[in-house]
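Fold it.
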Amino acid sequence: MSGIPVLIAGGGPVGLALALALERHGVEAMLVERNETTTRHPKMDITNGRSMELFRQLGVIDDLRAQAVPTDHDYSVIWCTRMEEWELARFDYPSVDQARKTLREENDGTMALEPGMRVSQVLLEPVLKKVLDDRCDHIDVQFGWGLESFTQDEDGVTAQLKSTATGEVKTVRADYLAGCDGAGSVTRRSLGIELSDLAPPNPETAAGVAAKGAPPVPKRRLYMIHFRSPEIERIERFGRAWHLQSPLGWSVIAQDDIDTWTIHMPVRPDEDPSTFDPEAKLFEALGCEIDCEILVANPWNPRLSLADSYGEGRVWMAGDSVHQVIPTGGYGMNTGIGDAVALGWALAGMLQGWGGAKLLEAYELERRHVGYRNREASHRHANLRADIRMSYDPVVHEDSAEGSAAREALGNKIQTLGNLENEAWGIEWGYRYDDSPIVCHEPEEATPPYSWEEYVPTSRPGGRVPNLFLDDGEPLFDKLGRGFSLIRFDDTSCDNLVAAARRAGLPLQIVDICNDKAAGLFKRKLVLVRPDHHCAWRGDADAANGEAAEQIIDTIRGAK
């Protein structure tokens, strides 16, 4: 039996990101994944700006960009009747290069430091695994080994691991177990934690079509086809489309802007997807035949689930093991990356001795709030698509005056409804931890706006602090330390806070910033920032004395 600080169950993007976060904090861990290779299924196609900020912090952003859609590609979300018929509406978005230019020119703190990235999970996972294999000294990665069972006690976790290839079972002892083992999580089931579900909207049922105000029908089925085709000019006849969507209910996702796409389509109640010919279903949806190679095809059931708890004792979870959403908005993996970074610094605090008893409890409260909020947003976006689907009339396919009028009306409706699922900056990087027990809150100050649509720059405790490019051209986030950072905007003394942090063993770095724009946005002379870019405390002067400083430090490390 071997002893390790952290055992990570699951080698998907969340488990891999958690391993990178632990490496950053100097914590040793073993990562096990029952599959012998990274995924071959195209589960994800957008890494949002907040996740890219975190990947930048973890030191892998250049590796990821090298595998993503080229940075000079702009792209659109386009609605059409069928692939070779009529365009209905479109939403155009800038390339990464254009977005970076806007970031620097506007430099107002409202945007993420990094633009989002279009890349399939098929490509993302191998990049993260290779970094762990080649550049990380603290992480032991073992694919082909799965978590079978575990028991925990006050001092740690005893886990049984099974080899996928041979059936061999081995036992490991860890201080903590991190369950990043997906929707069917062995970790969650073993803890007896239930999932609470919202019912996905289902316009494919008669009841759903007949009564928009009726309760959603719980069961909905979709069919996914991952395919390769040389006919990019036909598929992109309306322009470079990241998503090509139809009121018929299907959505084609461009994976690389070269030759690979994925289509998701609804399964009617009277259909049995096990009998589908994937190529025939693809042609039926598109309304034409194309030269193609089917790579993967399978049915799947969308879920809107949230775990009742994120863990207990020595066992905590992240990613799909605790929340599952419909892909609308791309909140699945992206929410999980935030979980991974948050759990990583919390576990580091516990293992390195500076974390208090409330640190992991706060992880659950903070991240479950985000999971709940993102599930609601995903549900909203799916309902919008269902509304469009229920507005469908076959006359839109007719080359006639009636068809033209119907297309114009439907296109206007889509344009009016908008595309919030790809523009919800408040969801993506504007989330806050207003009720966290490890934040020094300011109840006397009016709470800033907290919407799905936008992020209002603020250094209010609990929120993600704004990033700005400073006078030397470097982003503020790049100046922050691996642990906590005390941003100081003038020569205000911070001796009491520094001394209290040193006594508690809290890793703290002073970051002096001389920039009027940043000082104006942050609104305080001293801002204490956590390892995840969220503000823990702020003030215009040092803590009045050692006792006051100790109270602040004990709060933010979960010891009070």
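Confidence is low (pLDDT under 50) at residues 206-218.
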